[in-house]
Design a protein that fits this description.
By secondary structure, the protein is of the alpha/beta class. Helices cover 40% and strands 16% of the residues. The structure holds adenosine-5'-diphosphate.
Length: 183
């Protein structure tokens, strides 16, 4: 069962020695606040240079919402950083749920294409971008489980929560998914 390869943890994602950590980036890929800032600080200036090298696909856009890009991890314990862009929450009728699912799916497609086995995600879009945590957690666990079912080489996906609210939402969402799978 693919949900068995998902774990919910808490802590600072920049400290994890996994194959790749995912960055909740913005479309410019030039760094920002929240987890993006923490990842750039921990990885060092080479990370910004690598991000800048991605071509713009539209003015100012190096990675459209829902898509992902991969770079080395530089000074991070993680070998790679997968930069994905989650949606800004505008109330939920602007395609936000589908865009968030796409961010998780694109990140794992890229991880699988690079032969990576362990990937850690922050709670994409739930900080500055304002996506409600309970819905974001449900979308994260269901989308990751579907991707894991398609990619046998991915062994472990860690959903890293930075505070207790996130931890309780992600833990409940994963428990609910396991209950559904057991039925
Ligand atoms: P977004 O713009 O996608 O909302 P944020 O960085 O503002 O991105 O927040 C995404 C999530 O990452 C939030 O739940 C925030 O609490 C969490 N976060 C912030 N710093 C870290 C960190 N060092 N490790 C793991 N998660 C973090």
């Amino acid at each position: 069962m693919s949900a068995d390869r998902i774990v919910v943890t808490s802590g600072d994602i920049t400290r994890l020695a996994v194959d790749a950590i995912v960055n909740a980036a913005n479309e410019r890929l030039l760094g920002g606040g929240g987890v993006d800032g923490a990842i750039h600080r921990a990885a060092g200036p080479e990370l910004l240079a690598a991000c800048r090298a991605f071509p713009e696909v539209a003015p100012g856009v190096r990675c459209p919402t829902g898509d992902a890009r991969i770079t080395p991890g530089y000074r991070l314990p993680a070998r790679f950083v997968i930069h994905t862009v989650g949606p800004v929450w505008y109330g939920g009728a602007q395609g936000e749920p589908a865009a968030l699912a796409s961010a998780y799916r694109s990140s794992l497609n890229l991880a699988a294409a690079h032969g990576l086995r362990s990937v850690a995600f922050p709670a994409i879009s739930t900080g500055i971008y304002g996506f409600p945590l309970p819905m974001a957690a449900r979308i994260a666990v269901t989308t990751v489980a579907k991707s894991l079912a398609q990619h046998a080489t991915l062994e472990r996906v860690e959903l890293v929560c930075f505070d207790n609210d996130a931890l309780s939402c992600f833990a409940s969402a994963l428990a609910a998914l396991r209950d559904e799978d057991a039925d």
